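Task: sequence design from structure.
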C-alpha cells in the first residue's frame, strides 16, 4: 500500500503552458471519473492506510464540486496543485477551512512565470497568497526546475522571498523531457548536485519536497506503490505521474484490486535497478524497458521478465 496517492482529477486546463507534461503524455479524450467515483476511491485509500493524498491536473480548480467533497474527507490535509488563475472568493473560503492546501505553480520570478504560463499569472498568485496569509490559511508553492531557472530558484534571495510570503511548503519538481527536443531543459549535473545536497534547505521556515526525488538515496525508484502511486483522471492506476505506465484501472475495480496489477508488481520488484538518470525520472527514461513488461499482463511470471538496462 503506497504511503502517497497522487490523483490527477482532470485533463482540462484554462492555460496552455509551454512544455506541459500532462498534455504531452495524456492527449486522449477518455471520460473522466465522476465526483462520486473519485470520492469512493479516496475513502477506500484512507481505509487501506494511504496517509497522504495529493490533487493535481490539468487544472483541478475546474472541478469545484469534487474539491468540495475532498475537503470533507476525514483525517487529511490535501495539497492541491493549481495555477491559481481560477481562485475566487468561494475558493478562498474553501482553502481557509484548512483541509485543502493550495500549492501554487510558478516558474521562479514574474518573468519566468510569464514566459511559460502567460502574463498576469504570477501577479494573480501573489494576490491570492496575500489574501490567504491575511486569513491565516496554509498554502505553498510548486516550481518546475529546469536548467534555465534552477539557479535563480535555488538562490537564497528567491527562497527567502517565499518565506516572507508565508509559504508552508515548497515542491521542487525536476523537469522531465517528455517532449522531443526539450532535453536541454534537464538539470545539469551541477544543478542536480546542488538540489540534492544534504542540508540544502535547512534554515528555511517552510518544508521542501523534491520530486521525483533522489533514487540513489531512496535505494531505487519509489513509484508503482513502493512509496507513491498515481491515479489518472480516467481511473488508470499508474506507476507515477511522470511515467504514466498502467495495465489496470480503478474505474470499476476497487483500489485494492487495481493495486494488484502485474505490471506495477513487476516494476516494484525491480526498484533497486531504477536509479538516477539524466532527466529526473528513472522510470520515464527506461520506458522501453517498461513497455517490455507488458508481457506480464498476459500472464508471464514476473521473474522471467527483462531487467532494465543501465542508464
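Answer:
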Amino acid at each position: 500500500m503506497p504511503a502517497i496517492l497522487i490523483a490527477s482529477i482532470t485533463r482540462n486546463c484554462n492555460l496552455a503552458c509551454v512544455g506541459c507534461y500532462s498534455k504531452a503524455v495524456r492527449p486522449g479524450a477518455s471520460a473522466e471519473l465522476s465526483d462520486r467515483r473519485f470520492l469512493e476511491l479516496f475513502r477506500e485509500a484512507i481505509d487501506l492506510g494511504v496517509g497522504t493524498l495529493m490533487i493535481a491536473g490539468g487544472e483541478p480548480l475546474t472541478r469545484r464540486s469534487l474539491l468540495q467533497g475532498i475537503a470533507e474527507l476525514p483525517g487529511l490535509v490535501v495539497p492541491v496543485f493549481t495555477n491559481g488563475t481560477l481562485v475566487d472568493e468561494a475558493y478562498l473560503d474553501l482553502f481557509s477551512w484548512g483541509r485543502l492546501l493550495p500549492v501554487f505553480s510558478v516558474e521562479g520570478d514574474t518573468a519566468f512565470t510569464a514566459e511559460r504560463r502567460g502574463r498576469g499569472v504570477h501577479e494573480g498568485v501573489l494576490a491570492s497568497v496575500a489574501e490567504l496569509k491575511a486569513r491565516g490559511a496554509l498554502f505553498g508553492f510548486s516550481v518546475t526546475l529546469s536548467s534555465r531557472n534552477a539557479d535563480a530558484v535555488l538562490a537564497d534571495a528567491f527562497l527567502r522571498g517565499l518565506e516572507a510570503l508565508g509559504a508552508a511548503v515548497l515542491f521542487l519538481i525536476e523537469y522531465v523531457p517528455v517532449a522531443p527536443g526539450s532535453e536541454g531543459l534537464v538539470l545539469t549535473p551541477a544543478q542536480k548536485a546542488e538540489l540534492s545536497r544534504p542540508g540544502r534547505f535547512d534554515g528555511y521556515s517552510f518544508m521542501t519536497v523534491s520530486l521525483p526525488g533522489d533514487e540513489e538515496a531512496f535505494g531505487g525508484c519509489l513509484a508503482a506503490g513502493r512509496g507513491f502511486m498515481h491515479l489518472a483522471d480516467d481511473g488508470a492506476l499508474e506507476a507515477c505521474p511522470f511515467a504514466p505506465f498502467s495495465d489496470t484501472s480503478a474505474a470499476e475495480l476497487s483500489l485494492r484490486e487495481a493495486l494488484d496489477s502485474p505490471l506495477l508488481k513487476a516494476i516494484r520488484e525491480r526498484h533497486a535497478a531504477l536509479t538516477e538518470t539524466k532527466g529526473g525520472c528513472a522510470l520515464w527514461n527506461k520506458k522501453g524497458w517498461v513497455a517490455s513488461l507488458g508481457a506480464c499482463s498476459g500472464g508471464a511470471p514476473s521473474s522471467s521478465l527483462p531487467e532494465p538496462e543501465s542508464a
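DSSP finds 14 helices and nine strands in the chain.
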